[in-house]
Design a protein that fits this description.
4 helices; 14-stranded mixed sheet; mainly beta; globular; two-stranded antiparallel ribbon
């Protein structure tokens, strides 16, 4: 199994929503006990054109009766239920994928649109709120670390202002039922000559374009680029959506397993420098508030006056065991039937 972890700061777009999930069959019959969890819609932002909308899931435990104690429900998920709109959160966990790697939603009219990212939270902390913390002085941070297989040879290119870059696609997977596709970019330097040297174009980007090949297993560290609407990028052919990718800027790369028996040059020294924060302060008034609406009804917490735990029909897969944090795939509800 390939490793993946993300640490990200985000602003809670709504109050946290404690609720229950019950896996059901096609006839709507419950297949197991209710599982308590808390959903938090958050948004990371760098500027108006670079946002990331995430539905963060904090999983609790399965409950066996209609009046569970806090310990039976899961203290970790209950603490998350206290998060309020405007809180700034530091989240650690992993992004959730789908069986085909497509992070899309198909509406009843058969129109395919990009879906929000979803995240299984393994740890969180409230670091402030939008009223008390100056985002101009302390911009939101994020870093992502993951292993992946390269989908196509890295290609060298230039932007319109002559900045050199190398791009390649990479796929992370947890198994046959969950994968994510990334569109990785290694940025070089702005060149001024017709025939720049590797140092002038950016040694790390040039090394990437020359050495990263299809099928290689790589270890990547960087940050998600984000988009204007905070969702993934869709690649279409005509009216058909062929793929969806998460754009990621790579700060560190190592080839851990070569597909072919070939010589790979050592990574240039500039790639070994410590990672630096690259977020740009933006005035609070320019930051978009992107609401995230859950497609699942949100029942109130159980009390002694309630005769039974409310059942929420869902296509979310039930995690295999009642642990405080459970590996799961909330994005399964977006899969085509």
């Amino acid at each position: 199994m390939l490793q993946q972890q993300i640490t990200i700061e985000g602003i809670a777009q709504e109050d946290a929503a404690p609720q229950y999930h019950v896996r059901t069959d096609k006839q709507g019959r419950a297949l197991g006990r209710p599982h308590f969890y808390t959903e938090i819609p958050v948004c990371w932002t760098k500027d108006p054109d670079h946002n990331i909308v995430i539905s963060a899931f904090v999983w609790g435990n399965e409950v066996a009766n209609d009046n569970p104690t806090a310990e039976e429900m899961g203290l970790f998920a209950l603490r998350a239920a206290e998060i309020k709109k405007g809180d700034i959160l530091l989240l650690t966990g992993r992004l959730c994928g789908t069986a085909d790697g497509m992070l899309t939603f198909v509406d009843p009219q058969k129109v395919t649109t990009a879906a929000d990212l979803q995240m299984t939270v393994q740890g969180f902390a409230v670091t402030g709120n939008t009223n008390a913390r100056s985002l101009d002085l302390h911009p939101l941070q994020q870093i992502v670390f993951f292993e992946a297989f390269v989908g196509a040879d890295a290609k060298a290119d230039y932007t319109k202002n002559n900045t050199f870059l190398a791009k390649f696609t990479a796929c992370w997977s947890k198994g046959p039922e969950e994968k994510l596709w990334f569109d990785a970019t290694v940025w070089g330097k702005k060149v001024t000559s017709d025939k720049p040297t590797a140092e002038e174009a950016g040694s790390f980007a040039v090394w990437t374009a020359e050495n990263v090949k299809e099928g290689d297993k790589v270890l990547l560290i960087g940050r998600l680029a984000g988009s204007k609407d905070g969702r993934v990028s869709l690649y279409t052919k005509g009216r058909e959506v062929r793929a969806s990718y998460l754009d990621v800027t790579i700060n560190s790369l190592s080839i851990t397993e070569k597909k072919a028996n070939r010589v790979v040059k050592p990574v240039p020294a500039e790639a070994d420098t410590p990672l630096k924060a690259t977020a740009i302060p933006v005035a609070l008034s320019t930051r978009p508030a992107v609401p995230v609406v859950s497609s699942t009804p949100r029942p109130v917490l159980p009390t002694s006056n309630k005769p039974a735990v409310p059942v929420v029909r869902s296509n979310l897969p039930l995690p295999p065991s009642p642990k405080a944090v459970v590996e799961t795939n909330p994005f399964a509800k977006f899969k085509k039937s």
